Amino acid sequence: MNERLNRRLVAVMFTDMVGYTALMQADERLGLDKRDRYMSALEGHHDAFGGTIVQRLGDGSMSMFPSALAAVLAAVEIQRELATEDVPVRIGVHVGEVVVDPERLTGDAVNIAARIESFAVPGGVMLSDSAYDQIKNRSDVGIVRLGRFRLKHVGRPFDLYAVAADGVVVPDPGALEGKGEQFASLPSNLPDPPAALVGRPAELASLVELAREHRVVTITGPGGVGKTRIVIELGRLLAPEFLDGVAFVALADVTEPADFLPALADALDVKEAEGRTLGDGVAALIGDKKALLLLDNLEQVVSAASEVAGLAESCPGLRIVTTSRTPLRIAAEREYPLAPLELPPPSDTDSTESLMAYPAVALFVERGRKARGSFELMPENAGVVAAVCRRLDGLPLALELAAARLRLLSPEALLERLDHALQVLTSGPRDIPERQQTLRATIDWSHSLLSESEQRACSGAWPSSREGAPSPISRPSAPTPARPSSTSWSRSSTRLSSRRTARVTGFGCSRRSESTLANGSRPRARRARSR
Fold first, then answer.
1. What pTM, to 2 d.p., does this model score?
2. Could you give the number of structural domains in the chain?
């Protein structure tokens, strides 16, 4: 009685031969022949992809696979073979924990998989959102989202997906009407981060609580501090609480306030309709749903804050988290200034264990290992690594770009070359936004947000290699000011945005330009120049 249950996380597959009972009544010999072909295809492709048929249920089956990918690949081959045999079969796949017995599976995942199969069409393969999550990054598996549905006797609504492949039938969403209550929900479209988030547990915990308690939260901070990355992680953590969707809206390419609502509507798949505005359409889609809206890079169109305020007011279950270099200054907003990563003091340079406790060092070392597999923090290089992190002021983007240079440079050579930071910090991944691929691009992005007069003021502070843009110069010989402690980092962080980047690169700018965004000035948005 005390034996441990055999619990496993598996992909549960249900199949059903459509019309078998009617076929047996009309032509028993043909019915038995088609059932035999059906069972033969099941057995062959389960063996090929590591599946186990647990139960045969007359004209159906229940089985398990080690992963959603194995189940989907087997399902596709089953449908392709049976299509040539004119044997119509429905297949549904769900990933969850089950208790495995010799002749049965038990657990909620079994009931859910059976419900998923009931939504499938003959010749089709239907997936739950849990199964989809395991294969969504596979370029060799086509998937079509069909919507969000509440399944019978299942607690939460599910996003349903159909496999799209040669020989597999993809249902029209209208074919699912009547099979379950459909939700008009926000698209759950969080980007997949290229690497794990390092060094932000306290910030994430604070943001989770703020997002639960406040209708609008704005994450502010200088360019390169990691606002986009942390808001994506925040969305991932909060997704289980917002069952009506977590929508990520990238606004980096939106430079005119009038374009904010069209961009938002497009991201949420809201179409224009006679007699209503786009804003009304977005509000109608969200309604009283419990949803999370992530608006990234809102600083270019911060004067559209009234639209954000109106949306928060009209949708009581909605929470909005924005990233911006300046707060929106609306009544519902709670600002969260995001500080650079904590740095070790100059006195702490020897103990590798103590240095790794500082997030800035931990991020540099982790990204350095990705760049050069043999790189490790050792007593011999600990002081230099700490100096690199302090020289880059704990800015995550600068640290990641510098760590990428360890492919070719030693930490000592890297530190020496940081006197020409713009020429060194140029090795960002090609699959991230262009403004984050080099430090110069980050500066150009910040520079484009200023008004023309402010750009002229800045251009007088540095030599210019092209109109309005800074050129690489050596870092001034004056000592770098001490970085503010984490406890003193407050709402003034935005005011330090230009100054902080200048300290990393060796550039300076007039105090008027440094405080422009922080003081609520909303310069005319300018399109970022082509690079």
1. 0.58
2. 3
